[in-house]
């Protein structure tokens, strides 16, 4: 199985990532082989160029005709529509599992349950309030540039979990019936370029200290990694989605804090 995954074509893997991480009908144009879905994490930041670009454009151009607060909400809504709230659903499951679970099996069972609990609801409310407030507190141009950078960067940082932890379930028990393969050295370099290019552009245009983004968001990922290592000794798709959103939120909080200084 692994050999067949290695032989998948790079453009099939990109197409699989676009199908997997968005709800746009890319599957109508081309249907990649099933093995390509094992490599979707290797192009996860690239899908962030699409979702981040749509969100940033909605905020920037929407603010020209709408009140700033309405443009922020519209931008968030656009990304939710494009992704089908994939990562937000993961965050709710993550909060329910780690908030209400006890042992490893209990946490994994709660995360797999499709029903949302108190921790999940509260987690989503707090996340959305922080996200909307952070974007609203920034000048429109800075907020749009930060969105363009934060989306791919957070996906690049979160993708490291696949190398750092084993999958916590058996493959047949996975929600999407797919376990991501560990990125090769070449794939890791590609991930780095996908995630850092937009971030470098944002830092250059806004003048925000680069070391804050190199330090704080990865630290968020690392502490969540330690939590997963201790509690479930691995990762799940829900863990990846939740960590991605929380790392991205850290980028927004760093940027809006710098704007106030």
Sum up the structure in keywords.
261 residues, mainly alpha, 12 helices
Q: Biggest sheet: strands, sense, closure?
A: none
Number of strands: 0
Note poorly predicted spans. 1-6
Q: How many domains?
A: 1
Mean pLDDT across every amino acid position: 91
Query: If you compute it from the alpha carbons, what radius of gyration comes out, rounded to the nearest whole angstrom?
Result: 18 Å
Q: Rough shape? A: globular
- Based on secondary structure, the structural category is mainly alpha
Distance between the termini: 53 Å
Q: How much helical structure, as a percent, in the residues?
A: over 70%
The tally of helices reads: 12
This entry's quaternary arrangement is: single chain
Describe the protein's architecture and organization.
This protein has 261 residues and is mainly α. The chain has helices at 2-6, 10-21, 44-62, 68-83, 86-100, 104-112, 118-137, 140-158, 161-164, 185-206, 210-231, 237-260. The chain has one domain. It contains 12 helices and no strands. Helix 8 (140-158) packs antiparallel against helix 10. The longest helix is centred in the C-terminal third of the chain and has 24 residues, at 237-260. The N and C termini lie far apart (53 Å).
């Amino acid at each position: 199985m692994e050999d067949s995954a290695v032989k998948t074509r790079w453009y099939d893997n990109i197409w699989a990532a676009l199908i997997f991480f968005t709800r746009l009908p890319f599957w109508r144009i081309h249907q990649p082989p099933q093995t390509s879905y094992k490599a979707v994490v290797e192009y996860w930041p690239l899908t962030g160029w699409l979702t981040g670009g749509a969100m940033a454009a909605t905020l920037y151009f929407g603010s020209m005709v709408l009140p700033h607060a309405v443009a922020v909400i519209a931008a968030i809504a656009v990304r939710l529509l494009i992704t089908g709230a994939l990562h937000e659903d993961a965050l709710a499951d993550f909060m329910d599992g780690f908030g209400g679970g006890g042992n490893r099996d209990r946490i994994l069972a709660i995360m797999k349950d499709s029903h949302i609990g108190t921790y999940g609801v509260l987690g989503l409310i707090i996340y959305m309030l922080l996200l909307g407030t952070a974007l609203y507190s920034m000048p429109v141009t800075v907020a749009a540039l930060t969105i363009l950078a934060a989306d791919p960067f957070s996906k690049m940082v979160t993708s490291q979990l696949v190398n750092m932890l084993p999958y916590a379930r058996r493959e047949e028990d996975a929600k999407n019936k797919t376990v991501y393969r560990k990125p090769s050295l070449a794939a890791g370099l590609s991930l780095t370029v996908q995630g850092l290019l937009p971030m470098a552009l944002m830092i250059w245009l806004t003048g925000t200290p680069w070391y804050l983004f190199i330090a704080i968001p990865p630290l968020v990922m690392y502490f969540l990694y330690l939590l997963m290592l201790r509690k479930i000794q691995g990762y799940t798709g829900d863990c990846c989605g939740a960590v991605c959103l929380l790392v991205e939120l850290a980028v927004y909080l760093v940027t809006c804090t710098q704007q106030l200084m």
